[in-house]
Amino acid sequence: MTKKRALVCGAGGFIGGHLVNRLQTEGYWVRGVDVKQNEYGNDKADEFLIADLTYPDAAKNAVEGGFDEVYQLAADMGGAGYIFTGENDAAVMHNSALCNLNVLHAAQLSGVKKIFYSSSACMYPEYNQLDPNNPKCAEDSAYPAAPDSEYGWEKLFSERLYLAYQRNLGIEVKVARFHNIFGPKGTWRGGKEKAPAAMCRKVAEAEDGGTIEVWGDGQQTRSFLYIDECLEGVRRLMESDFSGPVNIGSEEMISINDFAKLAIEISGKNLSIKNIPGPQGVRGRNSDNELIATKLSWRPSKSLKEGMEKTYSWISAQVNQNK
Known about the structure:
Rossmann fold; UDP-galactose 4-epimerase, domain 1; 2 domains; 10 helices; NAD(P)-bd_dom_sf; Epimerase_deHydtase; dTDP-4-oxo-6-deoxy-D-allose reductase
């Protein structure tokens, strides 16, 4: 029996590395491509190409050989400290847009039948996320568009790009809007880490009886989805007859201060929280999972605490190794 072939763009990253492994367990032959290897060795790809997908020839080479499915996760991105300061806007928009333009065009020309695009909840309008207790992130609330970051605007443009290729050129696309995906074997320091990894690192580095710093007043809310649930949603979407866009996220909303308290509780340490000025994005964001439940007969169910216990254990080990 011939193995199905999948290309994972962005395989050197956190979600991409885990996705390669998931596809391997399902019996796929997988090629990964990224500008870097996965730094935590979380990549079992049959073949891995070091390539910059902002160049058309790199994208063309990546899709050569014939693929049943392409997963496009390559992007210039990071946590709030990278996305919301405004200092990286040009690079984020330029690099991510080129990755999408090049990969999608190359895939369509090479005869790929199905391509997945990882969008983000950052594309939702800021005006629907001003109340931390009642954010509105249903898929049909995307317009009138007003993302709070250039990262979100690029994601919204690229969603439309993929859907236009489906309408005009016949390639089947699947679009998911990720809501704060987290777990082990991802960036946990250096400025591009997301909130769960940053929180785990701060707690792991703190001495018992000490203090950790949290950006903003800590009343801003978010939901966070464990990586295994994210991959389950992606695979269910790819196997369905629904194109999206669809949210893939948790509905377990929590304030950032309470999120910090959860990390502290898991660590067993006695720590206090100091709120300081810093980039924080919208006031409230939470996944709305009605559409995914309707279209895919599934919604994520793993608790935030369960995922954070696994993530803290891994990051704490990294901190200890790097002391």
